[in-house]
Design goal:
With 164 residues, the protein is of the alpha+beta class. It is built from three helices and eleven strands, in the order αβββααββββββββ. Strand 7 and strand 8 form a beta hairpin.
Length: 164
Amino acid sequence: MELKKIQDLIKFVAESGASEVKLETEEFKITIKTGSSDSQQEGVVVHQMPQMGMPQPMPQAQMPVAQQQPVSAEQPAEQPKEESNLVSMKSPIIGTFYRKPAPDKPPFVEVGDTVKEGDVLCVIEAMKLFNEIESEVSGKVVKVLVDDASPVEFDQPLFLIEPV
């Protein structure tokens, strides 16, 4: 599905007042969620269905290879010595990672902060929508793995949390 068609679908869902719309075809699955008007939350998840001989999903092509390599080169060196008891919080979507809700606000979490399951750790902006990323576990934030305002990929580690 083309990006323009996805954007048009998002606009249509937002204007219709629906809280969630799921669309699935042989090629892809898309879920669009909008929060209530007072919470201002909206989210989009697009999954490309794997097919033999098909090129990689379009969102992976959005990030230049030069930006992918430093992050992947850094990760393997750190994970073996620290990862044994830590939980890696990964990005559920492709977009731009932000530690703060707004430029003039403090970060959602800092290294050393204690978080509960469901606490907001960061936001990821995708197609002009800011998606809150919540902690899946309760524990202590040990490390922030991504710089503020950096592009992130699907399933890329964002935080390391030591479970309580």
